[in-house]
Please model this.
Amino acid sequence: MTKFERKDFSEEELVRLITTEDAAETEALFAAARKQRQAVQGDKIFAYGFVYFTTYCRNNCNFCYYRRSNDIGRYRKSEDEVLAVAKALIDSGVNLIDLTMGEDPMYHAEQFETVCRIIRTIKEEYHTPVMISPGVVSDEIIDKFAEAGADFYALYQETHNRRLFENLRVDQSYDERMHAKLYARDRGMYIEEGLLAGVGEGPEDIARSLKIMGEIGARQVRVMSFIPQEGSPMENVRTPDRLEELKIIALMRLMYPDALIPASLDVDGIKGLEDRINAGANLITSIIPPRSGFMGVAHNVMDVDEGGRTVEEAAAILSGMGLRIASVEEYQAFLRKPQA
Ligand code: SAM
Ligand code: MD0
Ligand code: SF4
Model:
């Protein structure tokens, strides 16, 4: 057993690994994470379609392009447009549809009736798993999502340092955000927790977050490097070195062998895929059909219309690595498998 083949890292060990500048040790960490992924799922990699269907938002997160105060062009797609793009993604081979939105007051006013209808259609007619990423909503709305059949509720705390949270998610409540996530879990949905790297966190904050992800029972865990956004208060904050994100991916894989861990095409486009998979990620997110008029988040247009964020393009890269995209049946079997 090498020193990385175990799950019970102490916070002190995590801090040391996050801060190590020893290249050989870092490479050994990635190699152990890859081996762990291979042991759990062989050559299969999962893929999620991304459907960002409204970019209107009532919040003012300091890191986000779509924050309320940013004077940008926005869209709100119709039910038919959302279903058409979801169907195209499913036909292209994705395993799940991630329905993502800004906290759009229009949907709050109509009690998410349209969103629930969309979830039902994707589940019942397209027979495909659904993730809902709506921001913070009430318990009653979470009940509705659960009844409509949503499999996952994604809601990222970004950090578990309360002071830092308040600087990032201004005028939002740490506890309300955490409550929504835990309520969704208790209603039987899988939850995704996530971190932003490069927003002022220290290694101790990351170590604590890595532990909390397990304590709250997140089935999917992610980290994305911060990308500065024009017109936002953090537009001059530098994007961090990717080694931090890659090390966090590897540590998540070793701590939580069966977790879904994204390699998000939203951070560095398709050229960022290989490094993230090689650090232990087992899932590709932010797949967006070209020329569909739908956007990404951290990089809202990068590689989209060029066709870089497609299953086809990702599959070609994976094939060169001896890997392949899983079928939806394989994805569903993976979800049903009891966790170690
Ligand atoms: N509005 C919902 C929410 O905030 O939960 C869902 C969509 S939100 C745009 C999804 C996630 O994108 C955020 O939680 C954050 O982690 C990530 N994100 C937003 N802006 C980013 C940026 N500039 N760089 C990297 N990730 C970013
Ligand atoms: C991604 N752009 O997966 C998406 C987004 C929201 N659930 C996910 C941040 O990278
Ligand atoms: Fe709105 Fe989400 Fe962006 Fe915050 S991160 S401003 S809640 S879209």
Observations:
- The CA atoms of residues 153 and 191 lie 5 Å apart.
